Amino acid sequence: MRLTTPAEAMARALYRFTGMGRRYGVEWWILVAGGLLVLAIVCMALFSGVIAPFSPYDQNTGPQLAPPGGKHLMGTDNLQRDVWSRFVHGSQTILRVAVLAAIISSLVGIILGLVSGFSGGVLDRVLSLIMDSVYSFPGLILAIAFAAMLGPGVINITLSVAVIYIPTYFRLVRGQTLSIKEELYVEAARAIGASGSTILWQYIFPNVIATTVVVFTLNVADAIMIEAALTYLGLGLPPDIVDWGMDLAMGKRFLPAGHWWLITFPGAMISLLALGFTMLGEGLAEILNPRLLER
Amino acid sequence: MGTLSRYVITRVLLTIPMVFILLSIVFVVLRIMPGDPVSSLLGGHAPESVIEQKKEELGLNRPMAVQYLDYLWHVCRLDLGDSMVFKQRVTKAIKEKLPATIELTTFGMIITILFGVFMGAYAADKRRSPQDNIIRLYGIVIFCIPVYWLGLMFQLIFGVWLDILPIAGRTGPRVFPSTFSKTGFYILDTILIGDFSALQDVLIHLILPSFTLGMVLSGIFVRLTRANMLDVLRADYILAAEARGIKHRVIVYKHALKNAFIPVLTMFGLQFALLMAGAVLTESTFSWPGMGRLLLERIYLRDYPTLQGVIVVFALFVATVSLIVDIIYAIIDPRVRY
């Protein structure tokens, strides 16, 4: 037996990688493309200090409202700041808010859903009614009310975004819990004398958590658009934070004069980031559980 | 009593707790907000005694539970109260703005359905072809484009570069809504009065906002229609129709689409909330004087009664649409009953 050369090992890895593509078809490539897109933007956020040529706050980088080209890859804004530098730094804010919001809402939603579905009774009915009401109402409008109530701040906007997704997780997890509760292995656990909390956390929880992965990814995609929408409307963040939605709102004022670079780049990035997470979610959904999204 | 009417009554009664819960959430949320309507009303420098007097006048000094019950009692009588900031009934402010939002969402919806349903049906008919893949890609990508950014890009392309469509407002500078406005629905008003140049102006102003709103939502409908059409096209009765020699186009767009449309309709009831959220953003982008603008303007002024009123109307709107969709569904499919 001889040792494999690095080239051979790489070829084998590549073969397995494309093999997934042959097995799952186009969904695998959607997953890969989405993953790469997200990875690229995460790298941009992590290394923004290295990538950006200027500080995003530097008000003396060149002429005012200069179109893209030369020293300024994406032009400059009305305060002589470099649009490319703001563009690179803006990825940090939106990623942090969207991912954190999705984590908060999934934690709260999953726990409430588990407890509600498992215990049943009055608690379950009241919680379901509240969650269903919030779920059917336009999330953005609720987020606007919360963002206005809490005032500007990174934590505040994260909470405002998180609130509107709790019902999504709640409904999903509660439904799953209700059906898993009746499974034979839960019955068996009960028969050998397992306590309620053991059944909930060691038998039901592991079986529920898998389905929330896909929802989580799609949730981040949606949270990205809601975060940007709030800041675009002038809610949620103080003016000293670099954010794509706020840059869009600022660029909007210069749109009638035709300064296209101020709105094109931040908006395109919001779309690409949301697209990356959506593709990741769609691909995962198809591969993990082909029938999930059809429901 | 027939089963259908019993279903309708149950369904109507079920919307009441939903509206009530939303009302309560909004009431509490607004009351915890920092900043209050009295200081935004009187400016920051009003003396303490004046502020106290104004608070007394507006009933803001009462215990919150009393304010809450009082408010609920008024809402039950369809009285949304007076604005705290302007000398205006809330119902009047809403009555002025609601038609603009309804006009926008109606046209947005029409575009969503036209784009979404027909593209979805076409893609299903040509499945696994390049056209199908392009339409599927469109369905995913368009859904990830924020509605406000699409609106801004449309403004840039059609309003600034090509300079063929207006980018803001419901009418141009030479059209005065006060001369024809009766119901607030400008299209209806201009037709009623027979002023066709004004009608043209109103329609031109509707193009960009309604396309923006409609296209963003069409992605969901492309995917949904496609998925349902694929199922329907596999059904035996489609094969039977094919065997009878009916034209392929007629089978796809008449027989199959009609059957695939029922689940799409249900989905529409669920997605209506998205349409409302999209409308708020579109109104902000296009300076469209509707409910979304009213909401945003009054949030900064902490005008509680108007904000509550706007939320109630949104909630009622969403509840009514899902109610209508469910009832239509129950009529089409008699198996649906509680």
Structural notes for this entry:
The complex is a heterodimer of chains A (295) and B (338). Chain A is mainly α. Helix content of chain A is 74%, strand content 0%. Chain A contains eleven helices and no strands. The radius of gyration of chain A is 23 Å and the shape is flat. Chain A starts with 5 loop residues before the first helix and ends in a 7-residue tail after the last helix. With 338 residues, chain B is mainly alpha-helical. Chain B contains 14 helices and no strands. Chain B has helices spanning 3-32, 37-42, 48-58, 64-76, 90-125, 130-144, 147-161, 177-180, 186-193, 196-233, 236-243, 248-285, 291-301, 304-332. The longest helix of chain B has 38 residues, at 196-233. At the A-B interface, helix 5, helix 6, helix 9, helix 10 and helix 11 of A face helix 1, helix 6, helix 7, helix 12 and helix 13 of B.
**Unreliable runs of chain B:** none
Content of β-strand of chain A: under 5%
**Total number of helical segments of chain A?**
11
Rg of chain A, nearest Å: 23 Å
Write the element-wise H/E pattern of chain B from the N-terminal end onward.
HHHHHHHHHHHHHH
Determine the fraction of residues in helical runs of chain A and give it as a percent range: over 70%
Rg of chain B, rounded, reads 24 Å
* Percent strand of chain B: under 5%
Q: Would you tell me the structural class of the helices and strands of chain B?
A: mainly alpha
Give average pLDDT of chain B, whole number: 81
Q: Largest sheet of chain A, if any?
A: none
Which regions of chain A have little confidence, pLDDT < 50, spanning 5+ residues? none
How many β-strand stretches of chain B?
0
The major β-sheet of chain B equals: none
For the largest interface, the chains and their residue counts are: A-B, 45 and 48 residues
N-to-C terminal Cα separation of chain A, in Å? Answer: 51 Å
- Overall body shape of chain B: globular
From the helix content, strand content and strand pairing of chain A, which structural class follows? Answer: mainly alpha
Question: Any idea what the shape of chain A is?
Answer: flat
Distance between the termini of chain B: 14 Å
Query: Element order, helices and strands of chain A?
Result: HHHHHHHHHHH
